[in-house]
Each structure stands twice: as C-alpha cells, then as structure tokens.
Amino acid sequence: MKFKLSLLCAFFAAILISCSGSKEPSALIAHADRLNGELGAIAEESPMFLDSATVNYADGTLAVNIAFADTFFTASEFTDALVQYTLAQYMKSHTGANLDEVVNTISKEEGKMAITLIDRKGGSKTFDVPAARLRQLVKLKPMELNYNDARANVLEIMEDRDDAFELAANAEDVSFEVANGFAQYTFTFPNANGYARLKQAQLTGRCLNAVKPIYDNYGACRTMVEDLLKSFKIDGYRFVYENNRDKYTLKASVPWRTIN
To answer: Contact at 8 Å (CB) between 256 and 226?
Structure first.
C-alpha cells in the first residue's frame, strides 16, 4: 500500500512540476515592438505616401500592416511576386543579428510573416510568407526571386499612372513602355499645335515638375522606391509628345540624378 501511495505522489508531483514551468515568451514579441517603432517612424516621415505601418505578433504570425495615404495605390493590384521581391530588398539591406533571430524564430515556431496592404478606398490584401520562403528571400539573388513577374507588376502599376502627370490634357492617347532603360510615356495629339513651339529644355522642365513632387511625397520611402525601380533596370523617365498628322516628335528624359 505504501508503495502504491509513493507512486501516486510521484505521479502528481511530476504533473505539478510540468504545469508550474512557464513557457518562455517568443523572441518575436520584442522584435515586433522594435519593428513597430521603426516602421511607424518611417510612416510618420512619409505622410503623403503612408497612413501607417504597424507590426504585431500573435500565435506564430508576425503581422505587418501597411496603409497607404496615396490614393493612387490600390491593394488589389499588388502581387505575391512584387511583395516578396520588395521584402527581399528590404531584408537584404537590414541583415544582422536582429534579422537572423526573426527568421530563425519564425522557422522554429513554424510560423509566418503576414503582410497586409490597405488602400484609401477600403481595400486590403494579405500576403503570407512562410518561414522557409523568408530564408530564401534573404539568400537568393534578385533574378532568382520571381524577378520577371515582380518587374511586370511594377510596370503595370507605372502604366496606370499615365494620367497622373497632368502633362497633356489634350492628348488623344497615352501609352507606356520601357525604352532604352527609361519608363517612357508617349502622349499622342491630333496635331503638333499644342507643343510645336516648345523646346526640349522646356519640356524637360515640365516633366521634372510633374515627376519630382511624386517622389518628394514618398518621404522616407523614397530611396527604397528608387532602388526598387533601379533593380528593374529603370534609369528614370522619358516623356514623348507626338502626333499623327505631321510626325513631329519632341522628347525629354528625366534621369534619377535630375529628379534628386
């Protein structure tokens, strides 16, 4: 009888010991707080581009929420390829002990990073990036990160901005392409009357006045946006005025050094 009681006591003691041991809090809690402060500061320095940028951690998910202030951007137009490529660019520029611990802890907890984009029209889209993919984003070269798909998505977004430059209200058509390394917008008029007296320097001035405010509005995110476009072999902007009557064409290029 005493032997059975001893076994019973030992059993309950084991249960009590196992229950009393508290699980260590995830290292991601502290990193979420740190990142929340860092991204929050970037958003504050980019008020025309971002409404907010927050980070929180719960149940194995490091959630990054980015809300646009710029009404031009729509969450639905972003693809997994572009979001992951941009995330890779960001992580590669922030390597070190903090990034290692974040990726390793997400992997250990079999968790993920969830990036949610929110636009001013109330739309949102979430992109889940599992731990294994996070490791790849840090290690792989840009051309190995769905480069072509990410670039195609960027060009689609840039094409949608053709009417935002307000350079040619009377143009019959506006087309977009990447030509000789420049993001080129071609404005087609019914005739050359609207620009025949313009000189190239004057058109360059108009173009710079149209593009520069857009990049100024990116605030603290400006360098990241420019570096992203440069990684896609885009050296700046070119604007072309043409017409179908006399074939008179006027061109002006605005490279990054001019915008800056």
So the answer is: yes
Residues whose CB is less than 8 angstroms from the CB of residue 110 and which lie 6 or more positions away in sequence, other chains included: 60, 131
Instruction: Please state the φ and ψ torsions of residue 190, each to the nearest 5 degrees.
Output: -65, -30
Q: What is the DSSP letter of 217?
A: T
The alpha carbon dihedral of 191, 194, 200, 204 has a sign of negative
pLDDT (mean) for 44-49 = 97
pLDDT at 18: 43
Closest CA to 198 of 155, 252, 119, 243: 252
Rounded Cα–Cα distance for residues 28 and 216 (Å): 34
Residue 167: both structure tokens together: 């350079």
Q: Which residues contact 4 (CB under 8 A, 6 or more apart)?
A: none
Mean pLDDT over 223-236 rounds to 96
Q: CA–CA separation, 259 vs 218, rounded Å?
A: 13
Cβ atoms of 143 and 81 closer than 8 Å: no
pTM (predicted TM-score): 0.87
